[in-house]
Amino acid sequence: MNQKVIGTGQREKTHTLKLVLMERFQQGWEKKGLSQELSLRKKQQTRSVAILGPGRLGQAMGRLLANAGVPISFVAARNQAAARRAVRFIGEGTPLALSDPRLLSASVFLITTSDSAVAEVAGKLARQGKGAETWRGKVVLHTCGSLPSVVLNPFKLRGAAIGSLHPYQTVPSPQAGLRNLRSCFWAIEGEPRALRLARSWVKLLDGVAFSIPPKEKTLYHLSAFIVCPAVVTLMAQAASLLKQAGVPARISRPMLRQFVAEAARNFQDLGGRRALTGPAVRGDWATIRRHLDALQNAAPEFVPVYESLLKAMLALLNATDNMSLDKW
Ligand SMILES: NC(=O)c1ccc[n+]([C@@H]2O[C@H](COP(=O)([O-])OP(=O)(O)OC[C@H]3O[C@@H](n4cnc5c(N)ncnc54)[C@H](OP(=O)(O)O)[C@@H]3O)[C@@H](O)[C@H]2O)c1
After folding, report:
1. According to the model, what pLDDT value does residue 132 have?
2. How far away, in angstroms, is 55 Cα from ligand 1 center?
3. Radius of gyration of the chain from Cα atoms?
4. What's this model's pTM, rounded to 2 decimal places?
5. By CB atoms within 10 Å of each CB, which of 176, 215, 260, 327 scores lowest?
6. Residue ranges of the domains in the chain?
7. For a substitution probing ligand 1, which of 51, 52, 57 has the most ligand atoms within 8 Å of its CB?
């Protein structure tokens, strides 16, 4: 009996000791995790960021970067109300006009204006500040897919490092960007210091960064154009044909989404040639002729698009004489 009491006491002591050790171990880890988190924030906080031209992409990037610990100090727009709206969405930063001299206290500038405004905004801003020292040590990036970073040369001439980072992603609204800019692919180019910063941001957003030669940016951007807005246009046309065929939008939209997602998946798994299906692959010219007759009635303006796509499909299939265009 006595032995049993001593045994229970020992077990309790051992149990208490284990609990104390576990608690200390956990506290140690929490402390370590917290200090890692703090040092990450501190590291990122050494570079204050200004976002210029906060539209759909600028706002989404601003909020994602802010959430990842990058300090967004200023959000500047040509319209003050737009700057204030963007700050509300991003969750931090001071809204400013593009000509506000306070902007110059930032160390990183992210230009997210529409493509045609990048050079103009860059030119005006680079002239602000006195002497070359204003821009020395700073980094300026833009997010335009078709322009190289040399459009930011006015900053380079004043000592800043210039670069570009472009997400291969579609951002129809800032909210959509919050969902889809994480883990996506980013083309980057520019000077080493700008590239290092761009890479670190892509990493913070769990994305994949890859280099693009500056002189190939238009070609690169063209590739995005023919799969994204072009596919959306084709889907809208398909939805319109389905509507004329009596299929309502509540069915056609999810149906088209599922269909295109499957085609995209097959493309990734099999490549273009093997993922192709449909009458062009089968050499089913009677069906193609019926398509063209129906299209002539339903959407005659789309006939040249159909014919061009058919030609492109045949080229992808390395069409033989048996499957040539004069069959229809
Ligand atoms: N959205 C996408 O899917 C996507 C994806 C990848 C890359 N990008 C690139 O990201 C950049 C922005 O695209 P976005 O879709 O976010 O465009 P957006 O929503 O139209 O926003 C463009 C912003 O630029 C400002 N802006 C236009 N002209 C200006 C000027 N002359 N001076 C000062 N600001 C001016 C607009 O200001 P106001 O509000 O005053 O008009 C607006 O804030 C583009 O270079 C685009 O190629 C976009």
Report:
1. 66
2. 5
3. 28
4. 0.85
5. 215
6. 45-213, 227-327
7. 57
